C-alpha cells in the first residue's frame, strides 16, 4: 500500500518557502495592473463583493491571474467567501495550483476547500497530499479537514492511511464528531472491515440517519444481508437511501424476490423511488425475463 509521502505532488506552488511574502505579494500585484478597478479607499467589503463577482464570471486563465492579483494586493484571501469563489474558479479552469500562489498564510478554510475540491475531482491522492502539507505546516485541522481526507481514503481503499488519520482525530479530541465517525465507518466498510465499522457505529452517542445508512450499505455491500435486515428494522427514521441500500443488497445477492418485496414496502411507507432505483429494478427483472411483472 502506498504511503502518503509517495503521492504525486499536485503543485510546486503549494507553500511559500521562507521568503519575504510582503515584497513578493506587492511585486506580483503590480505586475498585473488589470486586477484593480475599484476607486482608492474602497471598503474591504466592497472589494470582496467585487472580487467574488469577477470570480463567478471568470472563464479564462489570464483573467483569473488578474483577479488573483487583486486578492493578493488587498490581502482578502482570509475571507471565506472570497476563498470559496477562488477555489471554485481555479478548479473549474483546471488550475488548482493557483489557489496558494503568493498567499503567505493559507487559512484553514482555504486548505479544507482545496482538499474537498480535489476529492470532488476524483484526485484523491492529491487531496491526501494537501492534507499532509496542511498537517506539516502546523495549520489547525478541524472536522472538515478529516471528513474530506477520510473520504479520499475510502475512494482509494487506503485503510492504513485512514487509520493514521483516525489517530490524528483522537489526538485532537475529535473522536466523538458524528461526521468524522461516519466517514471512518464508510472507510471501514469500503475496505471490507464491517466489524470495525460496527464498532465505530456502536460507540456513536447520537446516530444520525446518515450513520445508519452507511452501516447498512457496509453490510449490504459485503453480502451480509441478515445483519443488514436486522439493522434496517432498527433504523428509527428510514429514507430513500435506507431502502435503496437494502434493495440493492438483495439484488447483489441475486435475491430478486426479496428486493421486489422491499421495493413495494418502500412505496407503502409513502416513499417514492428515484429514477436510478426504478431503472435498477427494471434491469434486474428484465435479466430474469420477468419484465411483464415489473416492480410497480
UniProtKB/TrEMBL annotation:
Q: Where is the composition biased (Basic and acidic residues)?
A: 19-29
The cross-references to Pfam families, in alphabetical order and at most eight, read: PPR, PPR_2
Q: Which Gene3D superfamilies match?
A: Tetratricopeptide repeat domain (1.25.40.10)
Q: Which GO terms describe its molecular function?
A: RNA binding
Q: Which residues form a coiled coil?
A: none
Q: Which residues form the signal peptide?
A: none
Please cite one Gene Ontology biological process associated with this protein: RNA modification
**Swiss-Prot/TrEMBL PPR repeat ranges:** 107-141, 208-238, 239-273
Q: What is this protein called?
A: PPR repeat
Q: Which organism is it from?
A: Musa troglodytarum (fe'i banana)
